[in-house]
Automatic annotation (TrEMBL):
<keyword id="KW-0804">Transcription</keyword>
<dbReference type="InterPro" id="IPR005119">
    <property type="entry name" value="LysR_subst-bd"/>
</dbReference>
<dbReference type="Pfam" id="PF00126">
    <property type="entry name" value="HTH_1"/>
</dbReference>
<keyword id="KW-0805">Transcription regulation</keyword>
<keyword id="KW-0238">DNA-binding</keyword>
<dbReference type="Pfam" id="PF03466">
    <property type="entry name" value="LysR_substrate"/>
</dbReference>
<feature type="domain" description="HTH lysR-type">
    <location>
        <begin position="1"/>
        <end position="61"/>
    </location>
</feature>
<protein>
    <submittedName>
        <fullName>LysR substrate-binding domain-containing protein</fullName>
    </submittedName>
</protein>
<dbReference type="InterPro" id="IPR036390">
    <property type="entry name" value="WH_DNA-bd_sf"/>
</dbReference>
<dbReference type="InterPro" id="IPR000847">
    <property type="entry name" value="LysR_HTH_N"/>
</dbReference>
<comment type="similarity">
    <text>Belongs to the LysR transcriptional regulatory family.</text>
</comment>
<dbReference type="InterPro" id="IPR058163">
    <property type="entry name" value="LysR-type_TF_proteobact-type"/>
</dbReference>
<dbReference type="InterPro" id="IPR036388">
    <property type="entry name" value="WH-like_DNA-bd_sf"/>
</dbReference>
């Protein structure tokens, strides 16, 4: 069957959600009588009543109750699809999602410099920790960690990545060779493909982690904070370590990793000028590192 006009369905959704023609009219910027007329035309088209009209209230008929979830889901998908392709309102903040570790490191420096150059652009920075926290919905772009193989996303490699041990300057004085790690606390960040066992094996000290205490955190923000305070030795990405004066790298050995940090955005979305400015800034910043 042909669909009823969208204005009629919009009136139904607002009236069904608020159970008030008057409130629906306020939301849609029309009069109560206009909502009533659209609902009446809709009911005539469908051949069934959608509301039971009481003297001072409304209730949905069984047909109205059954139809409402489909209408709301359809409007939600239209809104999501519009945002995916065209983005939010042109004057809306540019939303960037990244892990707390990335936010607290080089990204803070880059965003500060961007803000000084583009004071007319408002940036909204939101956090994510686990892979499931990331996605195209609700943001203009993201900085993700992985192999860059996300479907329907444009991905720009920010830098080839390596991992290395870091600790406080005081603790570093006790570490001359990888064997000296024995007896100290290893700070582990969960969720990464490579960790301390891999680095120790690369250093020729396979299995040495068994002779160390362990402290497990869910973010590298936590492992780096603990390491800076002398709680142990963290294994971190070079990009997250650079620029910090409260940590040192006691060993020169760095471990290559197949994963890295990527600047990511949906391929189908047309970027607003403000989004394009931030994207270009972060994309070009990698060439200066």
């Amino acid at each position: 069957m042909s669909l009823p006009p969208i204005l009629w369905m919009q009136a139904f959704e607002a009236a069904a959600r608020t159970l008030s023609f008057t409130q629906a009219g306020r939301e849609l910027g029309v009069t109560q009588s206009a909502i009533s007329q659209r609902i009446r035309l809709l009911e005539d088209r469908l051949g069934q009543a959608l509301f039971v009209r009481h003297p001072r209230s409304l209730t949905l008929t069984p047909a109205g109750q059954a139809w409402l979830p489909s209408i709301q889901e359809a409007f939600t998908r239209i809104a999501e699809g519009t945002a995916e392709v065209f983005g939010p309102h042109p004057d809306a903040p540019v939303t960037l999602r990244a892990t707390p570790a990335v936010q607290n490191g080089w990204l803070a420096t880059e965003l500060t410099q961007f803000h000084h150059r583009h004071r007319d652009v408002t940036v909204r920075l939101v956090s994510a920790v686990w892979p499931g926290d990331f996605g195209a919905e609700g943001v203009d772009m993201e900085i993700r960690y992985g192999q860059g193989d996300w479907a329907d996303m444009e991905s720009v490699l920010l830098n080839e990545e390596v991992m290395l041990p870091v600790c406080s300057p005081e603790l570093a004085r006790e570490l001359q060779t990888p064997e000296d790690v024995a007896g100290h606390t290893l700070l582990h960040a969960a969720g990464f493909a490579l960790g301390w066992p891999s680095w120790l094996a690369l250093a020729g000290s396979e299995g040495l982690e068994a002779r160390c205490a362990s402290f497990i955190c869910d973010t590298q923000v936590a492992t780096l904070a603990l390491a800076a305070r002398g709680a142990g030795i963290a294994l971190t990405h070079r990009r997250l370590f650079e620029g910090r004066d409260d940590l040192v790298a006691p060993f020169e050995l760095c471990m290559p990793t197949d994963e890295a940090f990527w600047l990511v955005r949906p391929k189908a979305r047309v970027l607003r000028p403000a989004c394009e400015a931030l994207w270009a800034w972060l994309r070009d910043a990698r060439e200066l590192d």
